[in-house]
Amino acid sequence: MIKLFIPFLLFLSLPIFSQVNCEALFEKGTPCYEACVRVYEGTNPVKSRPQGSNESINGLDSALSLCPTFADLYYMRAIPYLKRGEFITWKKIIDKAVENDSIMYLGYRGGARFMFLRDYVGAIKDIEDLKRMGDWDIGTIYNGEYHLEVIRALSYRGIGDTLKAVSMLQSHIDTYPVTGNYDYYHLGVMLYQLKKYDEAEKAFKKQLLVRDYYADTYYYLALICWEQEELQEYYSNLQKAILFYKEGKCIRGRDSFMDYPDKIYLSQMEEKLFK
Question: What Å distances lie between residue 149 and 191, 194, 238, CA to CA?
């Protein structure tokens, strides 16, 4: 029998699983306990083997044959497919993790659906299903960079409901002031898209109080200056944007291979500079 523990602490990333205590999760001597020990404990646990290697895959499959309801193992099994872009296989496996532990893995799957697939409808469903399961802070995506409420707002923007997205994101910021690096930035982009330039400018200036060197923020401040016919400020902000971008001071995540929402590239900045 699985013992009670706090599942939502494990939303963020695989390394947290190094702290797993099999006796805290399963009754000693049961098949699931044995599966847990094989993966997390001992002198050569499965978790220490190279991710996605035959050793790792075979070890996880062996453990799952003992405990086919152990959601964490499906999660570990699925990760390499996500990283390789084999999304159909990843989805099939991660669905098993969600089936066996929805509280743990709905948020993970929803965040990944947005960040890797831009599956806005799927992300909204997963996050809102999670919200309905209890009255708690639903937490962040797997790497901690985005709160799931921000992902939910960006997903609503993705399906065309930018007004609702702005309302959600503003409500989140009011409740959890700047829980991520880019909250005000995304709010500013949404307001800019709605042509609410004064409000967008205020959001971007608040973003600069969080991180005052993002090229992306200065790019949008330049666009607002263009709309307001402030040409000197327009070129000044664009030049800052280009300088910071070349210095690597832009939205790019923590050594991530994902395409971040609302990211601006150097070619876009230079195009505006020479228009």
Answer: 17, 20, 31
